[in-house]
Design a protein that fits this description.
Blueprint (H helix, E strand, L loop, with lengths): L1 E10 L4 H11 L3 E10 L2 E10 L1 H18 L2 E7 L12 E10 L4 H11 L3 E10 L8 E10 L5 H14 L2 E7 L3
Antiparallel strand pairs: 1-3, 1-4, 2-3, 5-7, 5-8, 6-7
Helix pairs in contact: 3-4
């Protein structure tokens, strides 16, 4: 068995996920993991698939054409094995949540702190929400992180606190289920 990463981009519409996943299933692929979102009418999806090695080349070569037929740009990357395979980041799982009035640069400033500590961002969601009581939109982030074991959590928390104080942002950093 081999693994593929497939990304899909295009205008959203009902049935698009069913068409794509049915095609992949019929081609012999098994869906292992996926993330998808509709961002104001634009569809984006990332999938990790497993398929028999003999089917991988056919799936990879035919998928872009199938994508054009259903209105998606599909890209395929085969996951390598052996020493060249990416290694999972080692460390402790945490969740970082922030809440603030929307302003430019929130994600850039937060991720800059994390980058300085070699923290891997495993997953990030950010969104703007209406906040009638505040008069301005709220901006919320949630990140699933892997913090290296040798990182001082006290120092990391202090630097997150410093940035969040500068941008008037409430935050929570808590251990996450592994």
């Amino acid at each position: 068995m081999s693994q593929l990463i497939v990304s899909a981009l295009g205008p959203d519409r009902p049935g698009i996920v069913g068409e794509l996943t049915s095609h992949l299933h019929e081609a012999g692929a098994n869906l292992l993991d996926t993330r998808m979102v509709n961002l104001r009418g634009e569809f984006a999806m990332m999938m990790l698939l497993e398929a028999p090695t003999a089917a991988v080349e056919k799936i990879a070569s035919e998928l872009p054409q199938f994508g054009r037929r259903i209105g998606l740009t599909l890209t395929v990357a085969e996951q390598g094995g052996g020493d060249s395979a990416p290694h999972a980041t080692q460390g402790l799982p945490y969740r970082l949540k922030t809440y603030s009035l929307d302003q430019p640069g929130i994600v850039a400033r937060l991720t800059g702190v994390l980058r300085g500590y070699r923290v891997n961002i495993e997953e990030l969601t950010a969104r703007q929400e209406s906040a009638a009581f505040a008069g301005n939109p709220l901006f919320l982030t949630e990140m699933r992180l892997t913090v290296p074991a040798d990182v001082s959590l006290r120092e990391l928390r202090a630097d997150i606190e410093k940035v969040c104080s500068q941008i008037n942002c409430d935050w929570d950093l808590d251990p996450a289920e592994g």
